[in-house]
Design goal:
With 140 residues, this protein is an alpha+beta fold. It has one helix and four strands.
Amino acid sequence: MGAKTTLGQPLRRVVVFSRTSRIHLRVLATLDGLVKDSAAVGLMEGRRQLKLVETGCYEVHQSVEVKLRDGRSQLQDRLAGYVIVQELPNWLPRVRLDGRGDWSMRGWFDDNYLPYRRPAAMAPWPRPKSPLLQPHRGHN
């Protein structure tokens, strides 16, 4: 989290979709273990700490060196991104990412993407816009 991707942008969000409740609980337990493990790591540059924000939503904080005005430097934790865990909607049809199979793509976004629950600290999803909803203009 926070590292640059091949597109040149830093990775800010990882969304884990689980297919069953059992898998969902296992992923949450694994991340809860990482919360405890990362809290035990001492302050050092590049440290990444996972913090539980709400059920299924974790913040990743990264320690970075900040130069102070007097020439000294200081390590500070900065928000690097989020890990979001949620269950797949059970009404979605099966889809294989490798192209095998002839299942319907209804309900899936292009390239198999799904919307995810946004953390409370992030801005809400933008409202969908429709060309049919033009601003009302007075008649002359």
